[in-house]
Amino acid sequence: MKKIFSTVLMTVTVSALVISGCAKKEETGSSASPAASAVASDNTGKDFKIGMVTDIGGVNDKSFNQSAWEGLTQLKKQTSANVKNLESKSDADYTPNLNQFVKDGYNLTWGIGFLMGDAVKTVATQNPNAKLAIIDNVVEAPNVESVTFSEQEGSYLVGVVAGLTTKTNKIGFVGGIDIPVIKRFEAGFVAGVKAVKPDAKIQINYTGAFDKPDLGKAAAATIYNDGADIIFHAAGSTGNGVFNEAKDRAKNGKKVWVIGVDKDQSLEFGDEVTLTSMLKRVDSAVLRVSKDVVAGKFQGGKVVTLGLKDDGVGLPETSKKNVSADILKKVDEYKAKIISGEIKVPEKP
Questions:
Q1: Which of 200, 208, 206 is nearest to 186 (CA)?
Q2: Which of 172, 182, 204, 340 has the greatest number of C-beta atoms within 10 Å?
Q3: Residue 229 CA: distances (Å) to CA of 59, 254, 256, 258
Q4: At what angle do helices 117-126 and 94-103 cross, to 10 degrees?
Q5: What is the number of alpha carbons within 13 Å of residue 166 lying toward its C-beta?
Q6: Alpha carbon distances (Å) from 312 to 50, 119, 232, 307
Q7: What are the pLDDT digits (tens) for 29-38?
């Protein structure tokens, strides 16, 4: 049932770059995100309304939801479509927020995040003529397009970076809620670390939340106190607390690193503590599916999965600031092996 749309995604990306006159790459070994390109509107979507409902992390989480919203804001620039987001403060808000867009006649309603799966299924079933899409979950309905990612593949690569960079041989992982998508981050990361540093000790901590920076800070403090010098987080805005803890330690002369997630988080938290980030092209996926709706090509009932070969995950170009050329060469070697199928990255720990 899966349909990889790498060709379409890369076409959108290249087109955006040509129009904007910008040839600069954002990712190591992959094309730049169309959501980062300034494109003049062609007004093809001026009569369209696209809505997005966030999970509890909020639209300004510096991570997952923010990336999705950037995809829609770029859609507005490219097509003049009307875009709007609704933030969910709790899971009780998911269904009412989705229904609000459906009731208001939106051409497409996005549910952002695994946690919204049941709500998207309910709303889609009750409104068979409405078009919906979801990120990070599969909803089997003829009027829903599901987009998932091979997070384990990109996480494997940052695991390689961590394993070859650590000086203490102790590394941490801070997760948000213990759900399949976050377990893919964990599994890939651990496998990548072990591939290059089999004897490394990896401490895993799930905070149980995507919207609690204080919990992320506390989890990071515990892991750093136990001797780790690198932490990879996959925890939404909870992960902001991991960065805050690292920055506090940096002020006191302690050198520790954080590996960001979803976006190039060095742009938000600085190069002093950000070793690299595991990019997840949520912005590109949201833009692509939304443009399909404007073009009359919505693929309801389909599931698309994006991995390394689709440029759906990867490392940012800024990695070269703190990651040595030799390590990045190793990353490229492992990337090639994953794409060729020589390495099969586990999805579960």
A1: 206
A2: 172
A3: 30, 9, 5, 8
A4: 40
A5: 28
A6: 22, 25, 19, 5
A7: 333 343 344 4
Rounded Cα–Cα distance for residues 214 and 209 (Å)? 10
Nearest-angstrom CA–CA distance, 141 and 249: 48
Whether the predicted model's global pTM rises above the 0.70 cut? yes
Yes or no: say if 275 and 322 are a contact pair by the CB < 8 Å rule: yes
> What is d(CA 34, CA 11) in angstroms, rounded to the nearest whole number?
10
| pLDDT (0 to 100) of residue 56 | 87
Instruction: Identify the burial level of 78 via C-beta atoms within 10 angstroms of its C-beta, where 0-12 means exposed, 13-18 middle and 19 or more buried.
Output: buried
Query: Is residue 22 very low, low, confident or very high in pLDDT (cuts 50, 70, 90)?
Result: very low
pLDDT higher than threshold 80 for residue 258: yes
Closest by CA to 313, choosing from 180, 158, 154, is 154
Other Cβ atoms within 10 Å of 190 Cβ, number: 24
pLDDT at 293: 97
CA–CA gap between residue 110 and residue 67 (Å, rounded): 13
Asked if 134 and 285 touch (Cβ cutoff 8 Å), the reply is no
Dihedral in degrees, nearest 10, Cα atoms 135, 318, 236, 166: 120
Q: What is the mean pLDDT of residues 64-69?
A: 94
- Quick: pLDDT tens for 171-215: 999 999 999 999 999 999 999 999 999 999 999 999 999 999 999
Q: Tokens representing 84?
A: 């709007």
Helices (H), ranges, 280-324: 282-294
Residues ≥6 apart with Cβ < 8 Å to 285:
9, 71, 135, 147, 149, 304, 306, 312
Question: Which residue carries 């996005």 as its tokens?
Answer: 110
Q: Which residues pair with 109 in a beta bridge?
A: 51, 132
